[in-house]
């Protein structure tokens, strides 16, 4: 009698594990965080992906949240929570981007081009090709808090949404360690020079705004799209009366598309492009458009976050995803990708124009599917770029 009961429980558990997705189905995928790049050194920590259905999967897209807690050999702490939530029957979308960083990075020059690696007026430059990079004493230290939430209501059944967002960025305890005003001649950094020119505080900055948003989203799955497209336009208004240091406006325009050449998800070409533009007023230096500061911090491989920064920035990337190996229990178990991208940024303060310099990136990677129902992938990428840049990246879900 006892053995029969145990057998029945095992059979039920196996059935539940293989049950098709339904409303409320939750898929958790923990993964270690490992990486390396010149600005952060070696990165280690833990991350996790949670995917779930707010409604019937036949009429509701899967939602996802990514949580990461990481530390680096340059004594940095990085805590992030990124989310895309689809309401029941895709009635609404909620986009979240929360971050806390006790971090540091070089104060790269503005715009793309050779001057972007020039960190100070004494011609001191950043060694992109070395994991050791510059010493910690050459970095700009800071604490950063971000709270972004955007609510979008479905407009029609064609995939169009419209809505509002609130956006808070606070940088505190900024220490520009390479700056030396006591030396002869003085050593001036791009960060210090920008703040002096545009009237910003050297030790802190605040940017608070609201946004008007339009989204077109027909992707079949946000974790690993096989089909559909995505477009977003975001106009952000940052008035002083809401807490911003200075009033300004910004415009974000984005487009993604996916092409399945074999109709069985074995060979997919994915493209992603966006423009991040300063429309009016002046932004704090750390809020200027910069590579790697998108919602999921995945643009610009293999360059470090913030490596290219300017008044305006444009990015375009293409990725070919190839399925390689299936298992008995997972037909999408293993694959590989090759990618290429390009970034251009302007420097208002130094006369660098968009497209005057275009910085390429390229690389390859492996993909391991760790949850076939949620399409959750673990990605390991290695890439190369200009100025001797190279980097190793561990990703949860596809880059876009």
From TrEMBL:
<dbReference type="Pfam" id="PF01103">
    <property type="entry name" value="Omp85"/>
</dbReference>
<feature type="domain" description="Bacterial surface antigen (D15)">
    <location>
        <begin position="199"/>
        <end position="369"/>
    </location>
</feature>
<feature type="region of interest" description="Disordered">
    <location>
        <begin position="1"/>
        <end position="24"/>
    </location>
</feature>
<protein>
    <recommendedName>
        <fullName>Bacterial surface antigen (D15) domain-containing protein</fullName>
    </recommendedName>
</protein>
<keyword id="KW-0472">Membrane</keyword>
<dbReference type="InterPro" id="IPR000184">
    <property type="entry name" value="Bac_surfAg_D15"/>
</dbReference>
<feature type="compositionally biased region" description="Basic and acidic residues">
    <location>
        <begin position="9"/>
        <end position="18"/>
    </location>
</feature>
């Amino acid at each position: 009698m006892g053995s029969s009961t145990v057998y029945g429980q095992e059979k039920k558990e196996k059935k539940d594990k293989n049950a098709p997705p339904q409303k409320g189905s939750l898929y958790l995928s923990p993964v270690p965080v490992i990486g390396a790049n010149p600005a952060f050194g070696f990165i280690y920590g833990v991350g996790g992906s949670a995917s779930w259905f707010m409604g019937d999967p036949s009429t509701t897209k899967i939602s996802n949240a990514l949580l990461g807690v990481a530390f680096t050999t340059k004594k940095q702490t990085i805590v992030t929570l990124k989310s895309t939530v689809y309401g029941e029957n895709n009635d609404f979308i909620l986009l979240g981007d929360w971050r806390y960083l006790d971090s540091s990075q070089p104060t790269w020059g503005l715009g793309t081009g050779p001057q972007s690696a020039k960190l100070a007026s004494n011609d001191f430059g950043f060694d992109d090709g070395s994991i050791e990079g510059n010493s910690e004493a050459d970095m700009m230290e800071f604490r950063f808090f971000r709270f972004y939430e955007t609510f979008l209501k479905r407009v029609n059944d064609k995939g169009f949404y419209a809505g509002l967002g609130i956006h808070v960025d606070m940088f505190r305890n900024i220490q520009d360690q390479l700056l030396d005003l006591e030396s002869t001649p003085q050593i001036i950094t791009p960060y210090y020079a920008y703040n002096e020119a545009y009237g910003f505080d050297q030790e802190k900055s605040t940017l608070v705004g609201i946004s008007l948003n339009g989204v077109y989203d027909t992707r079949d799955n946000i974790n690993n799209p096989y089909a559909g497209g995505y477009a977003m336009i975001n106009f952000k208004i940052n008035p002083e009366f809401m807490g911003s240091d200075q009033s300004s406006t910004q415009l974000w325009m984005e487009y993604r598309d996916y092409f399945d050449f074999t109709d069985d998800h074995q060979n997919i070409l994915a493209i992603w492009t966006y423009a991040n533009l300063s429309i009016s007023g002046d932004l704090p230096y750390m809020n200027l458009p910069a590579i790697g500061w998108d919602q999921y911090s995945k643009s610009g491989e293999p360059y470090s976050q913030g490596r290219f920064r300017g008044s305006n920035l444009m990015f375009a990337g293409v990725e070919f995803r190839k399925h390689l190996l299936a298992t008995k229990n997972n037909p999408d178990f293993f694959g590989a990708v090759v990618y290429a991208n390009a970034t251009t940024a302007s420097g208002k303060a130094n006369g660098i124009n968009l497209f005057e310099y275009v910085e390429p990136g390229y690389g390859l990677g492996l993909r391991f599917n760790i949850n076939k129902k949620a399409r959750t992938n673990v990605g390991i990428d290695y890439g190369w770029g200009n100025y001797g840049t190279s980097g190793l990246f561990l990703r949860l879900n596809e880059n876009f």
